[in-house]
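Crash report, auto-generated. Payload:
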Amino acid sequence: MNIYDVSKKAGVSIATVSRVINGNSYVSEKTRKKVLDVIEEYGYTPNVFARGLGLNTMNTVGILCADSSDPYIARAIFYLQQELRRHNYDALLCCSGYELETKQKYVNLLLSKRTDAIILVGSNFVAADDKKNQYIRDAAKSVPVLIVNAALDGPNIYCSLCNDRHATYQATKSLLNSGHEKILYLYNAKSYSGMEKLGGFLDALNIDSNISDNNNGNIINNDYIQYIHGTIDEVKEHLNSLYKKGLKFDAIVTADDILAIGALKFAKENRLSIPDDLSIIGYNNSILCQCSDPELTSIDNKLETVCINCITTLMGVLQGKEAPLKTVFSAEIVKRDTTRF
Amino acid sequence: MNIYDVSKKAGVSIATVSRVINGNSYVSEKTRKKVLDVIEEYGYTPNVFARGLGLNTMNTVGILCADSSDPYIARAIFYLQQELRRHNYDALLCCSGYELETKQKYVNLLLSKRTDAIILVGSNFVAADDKKNQYIRDAAKSVPVLIVNAALDGPNIYCSLCNDRHATYQATKSLLNSGHEKILYLYNAKSYSGMEKLGGFLDALNIDSNISDNNNGNIINNDYIQYIHGTIDEVKEHLNSLYKKGLKFDAIVTADDILAIGALKFAKENRLSIPDDLSIIGYNNSILCQCSDPELTSIDNKLETVCINCITTLMGVLQGKEAPLKTVFSAEIVKRDTTRF
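Recovered output after restart:
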């Protein structure tokens, strides 16, 4: 018996069940009785309930990420933990790695700890193949699931993210508008945001210049869309091999700053002048952008704002308020020295 | 009543109390009775005890750091969490910031959560002024306190660290041996390891060349030891102002890669050739070293090894085994392109 079952049995929304549990006064006596009857009959005692009664509560939220040492994830965890603390909640941190099986295992682990909610950090938790998202929907039957940087529809699932598709679209368009003709796209994750960014890249090429009909027809050929998940040196070597095969490109749009750093190393090794011979755009606007020479133009995906919103939403849910299922913020290009525009 | 008090009242070591609590058989019946009598008389029921009895245990360890978004700290948290998980322990994560007051507050918070132990990550938790370390000793009266990257003597305090002093000594000596004469030292933390690294720098200058007696007498003048806590740009500006005042230096040894990146930016702005005009050495061997151009020579302080050792020690303590109070690993210089040696 979970909050989802209670809402079904009582014929009310999850938010209403939550309101009753938390003693919120905006519930009619009739509805309250209906919900409490179901709870009594089926013996539902979630943490939220326990908290309402002042019993055995953990005031703890599970934070699950693939790898907390990733600079982007590390920042997210910092912001989330700070905000949770401000609301007197603790953060139970787990790192699952990138495999579906271990993600499921860790979600179940956090459920068994009776955390008040689970926050999934990073868009790799949401797969393009929706069957692979069932474990998230299942978890949401027990506790609210919050997702940072990806969107997934479903009851009791709350998403905070940035418009990665539009940001990549704009970055690519800026390159086209400033005279670039052969743009290479590098990505390292087939996650939700990975697909969104790639979509934005394709949008820019299709919409803007209808390239497939003119002489540059091969610009959206697969050669110009490269998946490479690896270290800085591996990214560099991958580009070296494309370059040696004769692939021509005058700009590289990437889905992650680490890819852009690899692209910079490639340019240096091949004596390409940046941004004259080659423009490069990173993603995340991480500290890596300031470490490179020249410094990297990158996309700031407003991570702090997204994380604060995630916790604000969560607090609303736990207090039985109406909370938005999806909140989307706008990203921003931070221009530095690897682009001409 | 805490484990420390039990050990005092019973006249046995903390490890012995722990052994009794965990049902370890290497305790005489007489000692066991003495400890259990004290526990019964004074009503001591710590988590460790509860766990031994299979009651209401959390199997949770509190991890406290100043700022989990710092790349060094982020990696440490990742390794610690992974190792804890392998032993079926959860990690409760808190970020305290750098002020003594908030550090104390968070240690007390973690104690109130009845975590099985507290891990302090980062040497900023241990102050040169020992009065400021009393909150750690106090916490260790209730639960084992583990410290990553700093040393503090005291009962129930277990430290895992790297020999930062010797590493900085060696790095500085390598510079002297390869002909550098005016070496600037940059540091951004007056923490335990901050003072150790500075000590190593001074050791190298004193021992190696007895510099204060020769013409280079001013090399260990205060001008050559600069404290600067700030962003990459602030570090660069600080060096610019020293340079404009006429300070001469042919090498910079730093206590953190971020300082070394600032030094690189300074060199570029002033058209100093690296490593011909200026050698630079970072500390932590973080991913920033590979992002810069030229890539940074840095000191690898074996963070993964230190973190795994921390958890191995902790598990020993919780199982009532003899655990080392202090484990010191050796750091290693990773030579890249910012030094001539």
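Post-recovery validation: Confidence is low (pLDDT under 50) at residues 46-56, 207-220 of chain B.
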